[in-house]
Amino acid sequence: MAEELALEWFRDRIDALGAGGQTARLDTADHADPLVPAVQAGEVIRAWLEREGIPRGKTVLVLPREAVVVRRLRLPMAPENDLPDLVRFQAATKTSAPMDSLILDYLPVQQRGTGDGQDVITVTVDKDRLARMQAVCDAAGLTVEKVTLGALGIGKLVRAAQASDLGMAGPDMVVYQQDAQLEISIFDEGTLVFSHALQLPETLTPESLKPLNSDLTRSLMALSQVHPEASVGRCFYVCGTPRREVLELLRQRFADGLTVVDVSRAAKGRSIAGYEALAGTLLPASMPSLSLDLLHPRQRIEAPDRRRLYVAVASAALLLLAGGSGFYFYSQKSRLETEVADLQKGINTQEEQLQKGKPRADAYARVAKWKESDAQPVELWPLLQKHLPGADRVYLIEFRVVPTSGEVAARFTGRGQARERADVDGLNQSLSDQGFRVRPTTPALGKRDPDYPWQFELDIELPRSQLTDKSPPPAKPVTKS
Asked: CA-based, 20 to 30 A from 127: which of 49, 88, 325, 382?
């Protein structure tokens, strides 16, 4: 391991792994609470590290899956140096938050064969939240050098300990369990292409494991939507103390393709149970395909401005040519300097005008992109309505249709009530079977409607390929007063 300290930054605790293999856990929420002064939270962390005997210094912050937003974007082919700007522009069309309020980095995805575009996996985090982390670490005497994602550390650990070809020959799944927290990741084309997190109940039964089984299915379906011909052949289970119930479920899904990862080889004999993501993060940086840094995200490399150098060279040449005559020298020098100043002023004026017109040009480009879609909300609603169950099982209390451009025709969001959790899972499964892209959410019991106790959020996307039949279906009751 490199001489660094790794901290995994949860909302309710901080996990630490020192360069010497020391591990510690601090149960606190002060570090994530903006109402607690950063200095106060930092002092708590400083005292904790000193008490645990963990040296402070260069620090890598590791974010769990729940702390970031991960998306896959399809982009047109572009030079590598233009890719950062193109990714940010495309990401702005997929999020409701202003890009200025987010920090974004991405992982390029190598394409199978030849195609007319390229894919990237974007990872975004709230800028204020990241600034809070840095302020707390500064107060604790820590020098933050990198902010990355825990799923990438797990991928590095599996490659070092079990499968050096993880995600190389085909899609591979990694299931990482840390107490009741579980992350599902898929690696393909050498990098992370999918990641999802869920919380397991304290008591594991076949019934309580149904959400995990459903999330495994959704993960595989998400992969098939991008690569219909691809299938996951191997699953790697990473857990300090493997749970028998989870193992049985994974064996049912993957049979001989399941491997319980022994991390002892990568850990060099140290006990890192529960700290596997940190151990993988501190492995030597020899895997660029799994490298992501939200503190130093990928940026366009600007070419140096050599205009002043060119002006200086031209002036020197003119001075040498005019050296034989004093009057000619001074007159020519004065004239050329005036021309250079005028040219520079003109260049500056043009650049200012270009900068002033850039927001309008960007707006025109977005409007043109938007107009590519001819779908209207009144046309889009029936395409979803015909797949919804009746109000005897599920009803919506809030609904919104947002037409979009590109390969997605519209995004449907809302909230609703259901009689049983199975009704929510069945609705999501039905919509997914009909070609909708379902963003899985976890329903929760509420008190709003005792007859429909399960509250859920609806968040789906309608691919443009589904806009084949625009005739409205018979109306079904989907609302309840």
From this structure: 49
